[in-house]
Amino acid sequence: MTHHPDHEVELYRDEGAYEVYVDVPGYDRGDFDLRWHDGRLRVTAEQRDAEGETRVYNRHVSVPRRIEADEISATYSDGVLHVRLPISADESRPGTRIEVSE
Q1: For residue 5, with 0-12 CB atoms within 10 Å meaning exposed, 13-18 middle and 19 or more buried, which class applies?
Q2: pTM over 0.90
Q3: Looking at the domain 9-86, which fold is it?
Q4: Each residue's pLDDT tens digit, 50-90
Q5: N or C: more exposed end of the chain, with fewer CB within 10 A?
Q6: CA 20 distance to own-chain centroid
Q7: Could you count the other beta carbons within 10 Å of the beta carbon of residue 81?
Q8: What are the domain boundaries of the chain?
């Protein structure tokens, strides 16, 4: 059964992974271009109709943990794109921590 999000994009952390649900009805699987780069998931979809009109969808989703990029998976069913972003065993947050002084 497909989870239908209440919002256009929903992000959950569940059992060692982030689950991203994107409500994008009317596209085909081949219309999507998903990219993981620099701690962000980029979701782009483009569809051209019979009259040559183009419909484009473009969103970015950031997560605060390191992701196992080789294990990312995605499915598209009933107008909902579901992307699973497995969290790295090294659960440190990316980047350099900056201390705040008085």
Answers
A1: middle
A2: no
A3: Immunoglobulin-like (2.60.40)
A4: 888 999 999 999 998 889 999 999 999 999 999 999 998 87
A5: C
A6: 5
A7: 23
A8: 9-86
